[in-house]
Structures are given as structure tokens and as C-alpha cells.
Task: inverse folding
């Protein structure tokens, strides 16, 4: 494994966490959206991550098998039922006065955003360390 493979792995993690952050931001932005183009309230989105075998791994077989990049396999739509809120004055209220609200839990989305931020920061710090090691290795040759 070389520094470029390490940077590829870290970059894939950064991309995946960016997708997760965007999904959570979209969920929070649409937490009150009761009408969508598909009909009905907004449905929460959740990215699905998958390990992708590192195609450049040529190191020891056991180590190479453990190293993989991250890809966003899908952005799944949460099909759990909407929350029903009593608001007879709302334009989307049913005959009983209940409004079907999105299945978004703001607290859960904030935790997801915090976790994504922490993972992004950790990968960014690791990337900075790899770059610093590469710079030091180049200075050795001078």
C-alpha cells in the first residue's frame, strides 16, 4: 500500500460523508414539507454506504483484503409512515383535521450531521497527515 492508495481511501470517505451531510440537510430542510411532486409528505432520505474493494491494492493479501474505499451504493427513501399532526386549519388536513407530516426526526438528523462532521474532520486530518508524511519523505531525498 502506498500513499496514493491511502489518499484514495480517505478521499472516498470524505465524499461519502459529504453525501450523508447533504442528505441530512435535505431532510431537515423538508421537515415541514407536506406536498411533494410524488404526492404526499416528504420522505426521509438515508444514504447507504458500501465497501468497495481497493483495485490498486498490491500489498500483502491479508492487508489488501482489509483495505477498501467507500462508495454510496444508494440513497434510500424511508418508507415509514408519516407523522399525523392535528391541525384542522392546515390546507393539507384530512377530514378529521390531521395533517400527514414528513417522517423526519430533527434530533436524529442533527445527530447524523454531527457524526458526519466528526467523520469528515477525522478523514481530513488523516489526509493532512499523509500529505505531511509525503512531504517529509521528499525532503529526505534532498
Result:
Amino acid at each position: 500500500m502506498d500513499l496514493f492508495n491511502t489518499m484514495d481511501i480517505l478521499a472516498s470517505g470524505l465524499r461519502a460523508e459529504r453525501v450523508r451531510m447533504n442528505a441530512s440537510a435535505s431532510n431537515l430542510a423538508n421537515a415541514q414539507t407536506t406536498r411533494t411532486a410524488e404526492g404526499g409528505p416528504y420522505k426521509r432520505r438515508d444514504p447507504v454506504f458500501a465497501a468497495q474493494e481497493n483495485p490498486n491494492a498490491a500489498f500483502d493479501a491479508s492487508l489488501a483484503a482489509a483495505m477498501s474505499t467507500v462508495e454510496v451504493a444508494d440513497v434510500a427513501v424511508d418508507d415509514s409512515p408519516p407523522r399525523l399532526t392535528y391541525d384542522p386549519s392546515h390546507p393539507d388536513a384530512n377530514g378529521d383535521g390531521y395533517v400527514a407530516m414528513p417522517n423526519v426526526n430533527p434530533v436524529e438528523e442533527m445527530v447524523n450531521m454531527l457524526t458526519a462532521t466528526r467523520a469528515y474532520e477525522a478523514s481530513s486530518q488523516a489526509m493532512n497527515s499523509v500529505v505531511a508524511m509525503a512531504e517529509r519523505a521528499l525532503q529526505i531525498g534532498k
Remarks:
- The mean pLDDT is 88.
